[in-house]
Design a protein that fits this description.
By secondary structure, the chain is mainly α. Helix content is 55%, strand content 0%. The chain is globular and about 65 Å long.
């Protein structure tokens, strides 16, 4: 007799949702920074919009969400989320006089 083993949660992964307590002003400011950066580096596209990237980055920074958790739920890699976080930190550091991200 053969036994078939399959994951208990089924073929689809588990998605975790949480509510972020962020103002729309904060999200829009970070999204605008990302838009300006993309224009400056002449990036043709990103998989997600600057607004979506801003929410992901803010979730990582403000609520300490794991990179792989945010990546899996948004169909991008953890290294991509890490790169976005580092980019936004650098963009925010450029706006703060006398402070560097390094």
């Amino acid at each position: 007799m053969r036994k078939k083993f399959s994951p208990a949660e089924g073929p689809d992964g588990f998605v975790y949702q949480c509510r972020l307590s962020l103002s729309s002003t904060t999200v829009n400011m970070v999204a605008d920074l990302i838009r300006g950066h993309l224009k400056k580096i002449r990036s043709r596209w990103r998989k997600l919009s600057p607004g979506q990237i801003a929410v992901i980055v803010l979730a990582v920074l403000r609520h300490d969400q794991r990179l792989c958790g945010m990546a899996g739920g948004n169909d991008v890699s953890a290294s991509t989320v890490r790169r976005w976080v580092l980019e936004v930190i650098e963009l925010l550091a450029d706006r703060a006089p006398g402070w560097t991200a390094h």
